[in-house]
Amino acid sequence: MIDDLPEGLMARHLADDDHLRVLAVLDTWWGGLKGEAGSTERALLLPRLYFQHFTTTSFLVERGGGEIAAFLVGLLSQAEPETAYVHFVGVDPALHGQGLGRALYRAFFTLARSNGRRYVHCITSPENTASRAFHTRLGFTASAVKPDYDGPGLDRVAFTIDLSAHPVATPSVY
Ligand SMILES: CC(C)(COP(=O)(O)OP(=O)(O)OC[C@H]1O[C@@H](n2cnc3c(N)ncnc32)[C@H](O)[C@@H]1OP(=O)(O)O)[C@@H](O)C(=O)NCCC(=O)NCCS
C-alpha cells in the first residue's frame, strides 16, 4: 500500500474504529497550535463520517504494537472529476523528518492518478508554518492567505499540485 515507509511501520486504510484514536493525538501532534480554539477546530474537522465514508482514500500508519504513527484523510472530489483533496494529515512528532509525510502524499498521489485525477488540493492555517513549508517542498503551489476562507476568523492558505507536471511517483519525487 505504501512501499517506502521507515522500518517497523505498516500502512492500511482508515477504519471506523480509528476515529477516537486519531482524535486523541491531534493536540499533541499539532503542538497545541492556536490554543483551545485550535483544539476545538481540529476535532470538528474530523467527524466520524471520514472514518466511515472516506476510508478507501485515507491511510493510517501504525507501529508494530498498533500505536498510531501517522494518518492521511483524503478524498476524490464528487464535483470535480480531475480533482482529489487531502483533508487532514498528521505525523507523530517523534517521527518527523523521516519522509513519512512525503510517503503518505506519494501514496495518495498514486491513488489519485489511478482514479483519473490530475490535481490535488489542500488547505492549511496561515499559522501552520511547518505545514506550509512541507507542502511547498512537495511541489504544491501556495495561494496568498485567504481571509475568512472557512468561516469568520478562519483564514486559510490553499495549495494545489498538478500531477501531470510531475513524473510518475518514485522515491525521489514529491
Ligand atoms: C507537516 C508534517 C505532516 C510533515 O511530516 P514529516 O513526515 O515530518 O515530513 P517529511 O519528513 O516527509 O518531509 C518532507 C519534506 O518537507 C520538509 N519539511 C517537513 N516539515 C518541515 C518543516 N517543519 N519545516 C521545513 N521543511 C519541512 C522536509 O524537510 C522534507 O523535505 P526534503 O525531503 O527536501 O528534506 C508534520 O510536520 C506534521 O504532522 N505536522 C503536524 C500536523 C500538521 O500540521 N499537518 C498539516 C496540516 S493538516
Automatic annotation (TrEMBL):
Give the CDD domains listed for this entry: NAT_SF
The EC number(s) given in the record are: 2.3.-.-
N-acetyltransferase domain location: 9-164
Which EC class is this protein assigned? transferase
Identify the domain of life: Bacteria
Q: Which SUPFAM superfamilies match?
A: Acyl-CoA N-acyltransferases (Nat)
Q: What is this protein called?
A: GNAT family N-acetyltransferase
Identify the keywords attached in UniProt to this record, alphabetized. Answer: Acyltransferase, Transferase
- Extract the Gene3D superfamilies matched here: 3.40.630.30
| Gene Ontology molecular function, alphabetical | acyltransferase activity
